């Protein structure tokens, strides 16, 4: 017998958008007003902008994995798993739990915040040989991998093997790729001093992008400053260039160059989570097309936000622009969507989302940084203070703030020990292995599944 009479709110994804939404729902709704459930494969909210610092060892992985169970006040029921399909008609979300059980979760209101996955192209060898920089496991793995290249090059007597192990390629000149290349170059630059047999001149980092500029959002002057900093540090930047093919020991650029390397890091943009396609609803460049209130027109109780939704960017006017996929928008949308869900629940009117971009911060490691808060162009130490201050204050819990600050101080004072943990040794760990993109159902499979299992209330 069904004894639940409260409306059921289901939030999918515990990232910037999902966690902000859940915390606000918990604060603003009384426990007998609605049941809140969160579906998430991991027990933490990942602070993605600091991922390059985990890869380079400035921060430990735990410091940017913010606990979802830090307080007794957190009363949301958490289902450990991933949503693999949503049936809008019967209002059921199909979930694969972390033990591979398939369960149906009915809802009255659903908030879709599964974020994005790495955007790949049909480039031969790409998904088999490239690493991504989108999950905590990938960042930790890349760190081990880079250190192991130094270890193996040091042990090798073969000059060709040494050369290929000491070249590194990062594709993507957005902030994710630029920060990744910059932070990892600092890692190898510092680490090589502990390998007296290795010639530091053999270490070479390449940062490439098909676009004519790095991080165009920074503007011409600041973008050139960022390039100048990277070039000064020996990172070779190739613009208007991409990858033609990737192999286990070499990468071919579209300009014909063949780079011997065992390290290809692919950060060339993101696309909405494949969960969005399972709805069979209208999308804009793969993101769910929602109204400025972040609800799905024609489907009561369905909301989407963050990287997975095409939320109109009203601050830019009415010309069809959508909010860029940034943490800055996702966390504000999370709060806003919670208010709109509550308004819908209480029969009140919903508000449109408007946020004017606050700018961009880019941490290039050490005292190198460029930032553009509120349109003010900063370089060097002031830019770094703004970048770190911004990220630090955006971390959700005081314990996470303390961990990050302690790690920054420790790293500044004591440096890095360049320890290779070996956790992932001999395990497949390329792009295709980390983002579980083949787990999702098609809209037809979702329907068949719901019809076959019956709707559980
Ligand atoms: C390296 C890097 C650096 C960045 N730097 C910046 C920066 O400096 N400033 C900035 O504003 N933005 C930055 N971003 C972008 C920013 O992190 C994203 O825009 C932001 O995380 C989007 O928030 P979200 O909640 O939509 O998605 P996410 O934060 O990615 O959260 C999505 C959550 O959903 C979970 N999930 C995925 N699929 C499912 C499923 N099927 N079922 C259930 N749960 C699921 C994921 O595990 C994750 O927890 C950076 C991103 C990267 C990768």
From TrEMBL:
Native source species: Streptomyces violaceus (Streptomyces venezuelae)
NAD keyword on record: yes
SUPFAM superfamilies, A to Z: FAD/NAD(P)-binding domain
Pfam families: Pyr_redox_2
Domain (FAD/NAD(P)-binding) ranges: 8-334
Superkingdom as given in the UniProt entry: Bacteria
Entry-linked Gene3D superfamilies: 3.50.50.100
Keywords per UniProt: FAD, Flavoprotein, NAD, Oxidoreductase
Name listed for the protein in its UniProt record: NAD(P)/FAD-dependent oxidoreductase
Entry similarity comment: Belongs to the NADH dehydrogenase family.
